[in-house]
């Protein structure tokens, strides 16, 4: 039976089994540089990135289109400015022992998005991608998709993890759509999990696991191929189109 999993029967129900006799703990995920065709990822720079990200997320204010509106599902208090954002983010990273990543468009070192490896469990090969934010310059673009492809590729191909999680505020419909589009599977909702400065948080759990990754990876790579974009840079096939044909 494959180390990455096989199918067996238990009590009449089809169950996923795996041979873990040779399993060993994995290295902790790190935020070292990764480069793709449209985006590159580097470690978070506390000196310059807070101001760039605050601007990328919409800047000052509380209304729609501002940074506070963009960050409303993070469970953070309302933030006054880029300095407050930097302090809040740093405190979250420090408290959670995250590995924070900054997204930059190819050819630039200016931060336009972010995500972190968080709540990592190297002994069991489990980590989560969280604190995900895409500024206007990358939201809905190939760069956003490629950034998550690169982060997942590190988890599964480079580090040999078994499970990669995406958790979100259950009220955040755009994050639900993103998780599903990227190939994560919905696993349920933990109701009334947190009390945040903005009220109750129900947390929805999504994940992908190692035996699913080869197909997810192939779908990513087919979608990201230059052949999948027309002369105006518009996608020809969606991720869902490619996945359904796999």
Tell me about this structure:
The structure is a single chain. This protein is an alpha+beta fold. The chain has a single domain, classed as 3-Layer(aba) Sandwich (Aminopeptidase), CATH 3.40.630. Helix content is 29%, strand content 30%. It has seven helices and ten strands. It has an eight-stranded mixed sheet with strand order 3-4-5-6-7-8-10-9. Strands 1-2 form a two-stranded antiparallel ribbon. β5 and β6 form a beta hairpin. α1 crosses α3.
Q: Care to give the gist of this entry?
A:
The protein has 246 residues and is α+β, with helices and mostly antiparallel strands.
CATH homologous superfamily classification: Gcn5-related N-acetyltransferase (GNAT)
In the CATH hierarchy, the architecture is 3-Layer(aba) Sandwich
Major β-sheet annotation: 8 strands, mixed
The strand count comes to 10
Distance between the termini: 23 Å
Strand order of the largest sheet: 3-4-5-6-7-8-10-9
Characterize the overall form: globular
What's the CATH topology name? Aminopeptidase
| The level-1 CATH class | Alpha Beta
Helix content: 25-40%
Q: How large is the count of helical segments?
A: 7
Overview features:
single chain, 246 residues, alpha+beta, Aminopeptidase, eight-stranded mixed sheet, two-stranded antiparallel ribbon, 7 helices, 10 strands, disordered N terminus
Layout: helices, strands, pairs:
Layout: E1 6-10, E2 13-17, E3 34-35, E4 39-43, H1 49-56, H2 67-70, H3 82-96, E5 99-105, E6 111-121, E7 126-134, H4 142-158, E8 163-169, H5 173-181, E9 185-196, E10 199-209, H6 213-224, H7 239-245
């Amino acid at each position: 039976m494959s180390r990455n999993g096989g199918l067996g029967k238990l009590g009449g129900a089809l169950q996923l089994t795996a041979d873990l006799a040779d399993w060993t703990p994995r290295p902790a995920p790190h935020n070292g540089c990764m480069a793709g065709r449209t985006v590159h990822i580097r470690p978070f720079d506390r000196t310059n990135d807070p101001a760039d990200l605050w601007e990328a997320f919409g800047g000052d204010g509380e209304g729609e289109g501002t940074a506070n509106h963009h960050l409303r599902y993070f469970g953070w208090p309302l933030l006054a400015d880029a300095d407050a954002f930097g302090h809040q983010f740093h405190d979250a990273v420090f408290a959670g022992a995250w590995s924070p990543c900054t997204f930059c468009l190819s050819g630039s070192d200016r931060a336009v998005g972010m995500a972190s490896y968080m709540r990592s469990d190297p002994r069991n090969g489990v980590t989560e991608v969280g604190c995900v934010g895409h500024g206007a310059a990358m939201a809905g673009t190939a760069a956003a998709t490629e950034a998550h492809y690169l982060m997942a590729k590190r988890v599964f191909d480079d580090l040999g993890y078994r499970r990669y999680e995406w958790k979100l505020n259950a009220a955040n419909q755009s994050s639900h759509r993103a998780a599903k589009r990227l190939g994560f599977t919905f696993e349920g909702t933990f109701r009334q999990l947190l009390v945040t400065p903005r009220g109750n948080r129900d947390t929805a759990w999504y994940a992908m696991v190692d035996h699913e990754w080869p197909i997810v990876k192939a779908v990513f790579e087919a979608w990201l191929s230059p052949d999948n974009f027309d002369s105006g840079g518009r996608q020809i096939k969606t991720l869902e189109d490619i996945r359904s044909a796999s």
